[in-house]
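Exam prep: given the inputs below (a chain plus zinc ion), describe the expected output before reading on.
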Amino acid sequence: MHKAISAIKAVIKKSIAIFKYPIIQLSQVYFNIVGYKVVCNVCNYKFNKFKSGYWHKNTICPNCSSNVRLRLLMATLIHHPVLNFKNIIDNKKVLHFAPELPLRKIIAKKAGIYHTADFLAEGYSYGIIDFNLDISNMQTVKDNTYDCVIACDVLEHVPNHKAGMQEVNRVLQKGGYCIFTVPQKDNLAITFEDLSLTSKEDRLKNFGQEDHLRIYGNDFSALLSNYGFDVTEIDESYFDKKIKENNVLFPPVLSNNPLATNYRKVFIGIKK
Ligand SMILES: [Zn+2]
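Solution:
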């Protein structure tokens, strides 16, 4: 009986996957005619509202699955007078850790040389990447190699995250840019880390996810500054109300989960 139910569920899932693309294409004709409320600044698709995710309601793009942090980064690269595509990505040599598929496509087109990397571990699935690389120990990468290193929501998985920041600084050229995002507990002043918590249950309870090793506080910029960067923090308040609401750069409904990151920030550091 269970097998039959599983088989039916699998067929339904497959059917939804097959029809998802044409349905979303059709929806674009509809939204272009009758108007839309939100637009994803990563894939440019329009909708009445975004999908709900694990942490927040109505924050995930139904087409490309972009989330608040990714769209906040895109908004920065599109609208910021200095920290933008032209200065950071276009024709530059870029290293991108744990590359998010929709962002990867965009950067691959714009960068001069584009390398993707991840530190491969059992139990996780990865797309095709260029390098199997530990961000906290990039032995195979020479000093001053890249113009830009991107690592969104990576450092919370890295045991020695300070070595990670130092290594990113080392492989960047002087004046090069690092782009980080990290989960930050609202109103937490100091990053909370306890590497003795090794069980999935303990990590989930203390850090918000089974494979996170810490939860960051408002000290992240200061921490990153210790490793040779001038850091700029950008959150949704930087952008016009219209951009903020259209692109959903802030959760429309705050999460009550005490470990949720309601106030997302993008951290861009320039190597001194
Ligand atoms: Zn999208």
